[in-house]
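Record 1 of the preview.
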Amino acid sequence: DDLKRHGVGVAEEGVSGGIEGTHPLAQIAREMLDCDIIVASEDPSAEEVQRIESRAQYASGVIGATVAHIQSYKGEGVRLPAKQRELAQRGASEGLLRGLMLFESPYALKDLPKGIPAVVGYGADRFSLRASLEALLGKRACPGRLPVTVG
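->
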């Protein structure tokens, strides 16, 4: 997502099969990991879900990342889109999902599969993106605790 314009993606490089390439986290991950990177919409289309699943079947593991846009603090306002929740649950049940990064709000943690290592970044700026990936990879300590109860 474009952090300055809610609901507008920064990963708008058109490639066959979808959008890829310019998201800041994708750039950071390319510097730190030798891996394929898949960028999809916040509420992925059926075609994006199919592309993610077809590429993931060849992976030895998957690290997921998402930004939780809070619409309100009631009901569905703190939920991740259903397709994101379903992808994460399927990845976890198949043993592919090895870690998760959640940015902006810890309240969406309840939507993520239990038992998968997760790092929460309150911001989604480049520093937070890099620090969260470093923490997930064990290259940075995570001494903090969530100031809220998520359950």
